């Protein structure tokens, strides 16, 4: 098989540029005034050695500034400890997701007691009050200046919450701005800690904790208006082995499908643990959305029944209060996608690339059961919704990347109507789009009608010219409105957020 055509997107890009105005084809909407900040790996080698996994490369921020119909671009490495130490030593010094430093025997013994935790925050960005931070799965957010992209240091929290691993996908309550997230604390008795962080504060407030024997690898989690949900996929680790095995972080996790997937559900406000629902074994990086379900069906069933069928007793009353959570995710049959994303196989191209299906899981919090349905036959990754409007609520549209040609990797953008299953897509031969970020029009009608009124922003690798462009699509039709071309190829990245001048933003 020839090398993967998107190879330029998995090649180091060390050039740092600042371009006030990129060449634009088409028309950038007048109302689009703000900055898209994206994160991802940009350097895949240190000295003679390559990182092993796509998730390991050293973090670079990219900013696309939109306004007055024009697009500016800047990119800059995040000046992390991982990067500084690698540069100084000329070799990899910190443990990443799929790569460990090469230790001497003495170094390995020392590393057992003092594992060098990476701060290579290459996955996502978030706004904490007035602070912008880059995120990875270690709890070391890195502050940066959104104008200059200069690194400002690690975010210091003033609390005593402990954790080794976290998610780069916190949730924000769109009405209050409160951020919700969790930590996995590895110990003789490991725990998950859920917390909230009020805007502008530096102390994370613990909502709930639960002990866990074998912590699961979870890249993201789910939130409704009422619940926090951790999906414990059966990719689990023995924390003791993690410290002593001497293999990179993710290789310590084992796929144990017989465990099924366990959905831990808490009341978001009180921290009460509501249910532990076990469903089919599956794996996902990304939740799509979640919301309180079944209320309409439940209410009408109660109304329709004769009075003497009304359930009685404390247990039944509380059962009725618990209800159902509807949880949508981009799910895989197993966790083999992690292996498919090592740089070697990814650069070679894989006809059998595992693809994610948009699944809807209904969690019955009373019976603690899970049912599953397929929302569409269209595969989807890097899913985004109109977060300001529908996060944690019933919704209709999800956008993401799709895989059209076998052996390719995210070669189209898709929009799925989860109510009807109808799919729209954008595809151009030789082009490899990244995560589409939705930006709502300021004049979008209120309510469900306006849910897809806006644009999608996606950074696309054009493999033929080995350059990248910012693509602006009409989010409703997926028709192209404009593209702004960058003079170099941007490595395939992970996630980004849009921060509008009017305060409109994603996360
Ligand atoms: Fe992610």
Task: Lay out the secondary structure.
Blueprint: E1 18-19, E2 24-26, E3 34-43, E4 45-46, E5 49-50, E6 58-67, E7 70-77, H1 81-89, H2 105-113, E8 124-128, E9 131-135, E10 142-144, E11 151-154, E12 165-166, E13 171-172, E14 179-185, E15 190-197, E16 205-212, E17 222-223, E18 227-232, E19 235-236, H3 239-244, E20 254-255, E21 261-267, E22 273-279, E23 283-293, H4 295-304, H5 314-322, E24 324-332, H6 336-340, H7 343-348, E25 357-364, E26 369-374, E27 381-384, H8 387-390, E28 397-402, E29 412-417, E30 423-427, E31 431-433, E32 437-440, E33 454-462, E34 467-474, E35 480-486, E36 496-500
Antiparallel strand pairs: 1-7, 2-35, 3-6, 3-36, 4-5, 6-7, 8-9, 9-10, 10-11, 12-14, 13-14, 14-15, 15-16, 17-18, 18-21, 19-20, 21-22, 23-24, 24-25, 25-26, 27-28, 28-29, 29-30, 31-33, 32-33, 33-34, 34-35
Describe the structure.
With 507 residues, the chain is mainly β. The protein has one domain (7-305, 312-500). Helices cover 11% and strands 39% of the residues. It is built from eight helices and 36 strands. The strands form nine sheets. Strands 2, 31, 32, 33, 34 and 35 form a six-stranded antiparallel sheet that branches. Strands 1-7-6-3-36 form a five-stranded antiparallel sheet, with no helix packed on it. Strands 12, 13, 14, 15 and 16 form a five-stranded antiparallel sheet that branches. The longest helix has 10 residues, at 295-304. The structure holds fe (ii) ion (FE2). The site of fe (ii) ion has 7 residues, from strand 23.
